[in-house]
Amino acid sequence: MRALVAGEVGEPNDVLRLESRPVPTPEAGQALIRVKAAPVHASDLHVLRGRYGFSPEFPTVGGHMECVGLIESLGRHTEGLKIGERVVAVAVPAVPGPRAAGTWQEYLVADVHRLVPVPDRLSDSSACQLAVNPLTALLLVARELDVQSGEWLLQTAAGSTVGRLVIQLARHLGIRTINVVRRRDAVEELKAFGGDEVICTEDEDLLQRVTEIAGPAGVRKAIDCVAGPVGAQVSQALAPGGEVVVYGALSTHRQTDPAALTIPLLARSVIYETKVVRGFWLNHWFGTASPTDVLRALSEVRSLVAADVLSIPQGKPFPLERFAEAISFAETPAHGAKPLLVFEDVRDKDDE
User: Fold this and answer.
1) Cα(241)–Cα(262) distance, rounded to whole angstroms?
2) Binning pLDDT at 50, 70 and 90, where does residue 352 land?
3) 91, 146, 227, 251: least CB-packed within 10 angstroms?
4) Parallel, antiparallel, or unpaired for β 16-20 and 2-6?
C-alpha cells in the first residue's frame, strides 16, 4: 500500500515521501480501514515540525487526527461493525499513551471503539472532518464550559472553522455569542452567519466593547484560540469569577520556541477577581475519556451534522501523489477550504 511517511522532524514538504508499506493486520477489537479521504490539519503539520504537544517516533506516517474509509476486514472476535461499512476513524493518539496509526496511508488499523458509522447522506468530505473541529466546538461549549441558554459566550478566532461551528451550535442552544476577529471585513460576514455581536481588534478596544455589550452582569465564559496579548485581554474582559478555556495559540502559529507560547495575564485580575484560565487539548480528552463517552460525543456530533445544525465546509481534494500541493494549500492564508488527501473520488452525497 502507499503511505505518506516523514523520515524526520522538519518542514513537511522536505521530509515527507511516498513509500510502499505492507497492509497491516487487525487484531481482536480492531478493524482494517481502506482510507478514502483524510484532511490535512494545521496540527498535523505542527507534529512534523516538532512544535506540537507530542512527538512521534520517526519515521512516521503523517496525519494523526481523522479520516473516512470502508471496513476491509475485522479482527477475530470483533463485533458491532460489518465489512464494507463506511466509518469515520479517529486516529488522535491518547495522551499519555501510544502513538496511533497515521491517516495518510491507504490502509490503517483502528480500535472499533474509535470508529463511527457514517450515514449515506454525509459526503466523504464532511465525514472525514467530523471528529476534530465539530467535536472540539461541542466539547468546549457544552462540556468544558457548560454554557446555558441565554448566557453570553466570548470567543476569539471567530472566523475560523471551529469559531463558525461554535456560532452555529450556540444559536441551536440559545447561547449569545460575542465574536472577536482581527479584520474589519469579517464583521458583517460573521453577523450574517449568526454571530450576535462581533468585535474587530483592528479598530476596537476589546475590553470596552465587551463591557458595552454585556452590561453590568458581564461575561463569565470564554474560549480562546489565539493566546498571547489577545488571550490576556479576554481574561481581563471577563466578570469576576469568569473562566476562559484556551485551546489554541494562533498568535504564535509558526513559532517553534516553547518559551514564546505565552499569555501575559494580570496577577491582580487572576487573584482578586478569582478568574480561571485553563487549557483544552483534544488529544488529552481522547486519552482520558472512557470509550463510552468518546462514542457518545462522536455520535452526538454526527447527529448535529446530519441534521444540518452544524455545517462542515466542503474540502478541497488532492490525490495522494499531489501531497505537496495539499500542504502548500493548507498554509495559504484564508484558503477557505480544508485540503483533503484522497485515495479515490470523494463521494458527493451532500449535493444529491
Assistant:
1) 22
2) very low
3) 146
4) antiparallel
